[in-house]
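#help-structures
NK: newbie question, is this the right format to request a structure? protein is Transcription factor domain-containing protein
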Amino acid sequence: MQLKVKTNPDHPIRPAALVCRSDEICRSVGLRFEDGLSDGLSDGLSDGRSVSHTVLQSPNRSGPTQMSVMMAKLRLFRLSTRICRHISGPSRLDQRSLHELDTEIAGEQAKWDSMYMVDGSPSILVPNGYAYWCVLQTYAHHLYLLLHRPFHHSKATSFLMTSRERCISSSIAMLSIHKQLYEAPLLQDFFWLLNGLTSLKALHAAMALNSCIQDVATAVDIGYSLDSFRAEIEALTFRMKALADRSKICSRAHQVLDRLQTHTGSGNALMTDTSTEIENLFEDWTDVREWLDTNMMDCMNY
């Protein structure tokens, strides 16, 4: 599949609709995947049988089976499609729908914990399972950000404190996962995941977290540390700089984050025009294809 990648470095970066746009780009791939999965359900596939080159082999029978991984991806694909339709439609500000979809995401996360974690911690015997968990969690937290974005800012007529708290917690969680994939010895074989959508979602998390930091109209919960939030964004900036030679996504993400760091300095409030410009990085939509490297489809199919 060939993608024409625009290279204009001055184009505004708006990654908030990543899942929706990537679903559109890969719609034919996704539909073939879903059809193929339904055809193979009766085969009783396990870790010993190859389903796709994009599904890694688990090292032993105690790890997650290929079928469990595929089913988790299929449920997530269907849920992300529903959420994208919701946030693009007239019901985007409906709080009942917000809570229902939020609960569904949390339900999927609970399933992943039971599948891939042992007493709440990754198993050193099954690093594949931990990598799967990390990838799925980044998608879950990205969906949380998309779902709660209309409610997260105190200036919004639909403002909900719980939505801002969700945006903060999901942003921190995504930055933490990005750091684990970058640093954890257990995940060293999956370092390549940082070349693609995992890093783009981390950028989205940084934009969301910065949006909450800059929302000075209402004090952030006293249990949060604004300095620690800024430190997380700064750490992501350093990681993106180190990864910049590996992919266009990381290179452009570093440019955006470096600009963000320059504007925000050591925690000083932004000028009005600059604050609005940075806020738009979280608020607006763009064509995600501008960010994709030619080898990105492999990462998207992981």
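mod (FA): yep, format's fine, and the tokens are attached above. The chain has one domain: 18-32+64-87+95-300.
NK: thank you!
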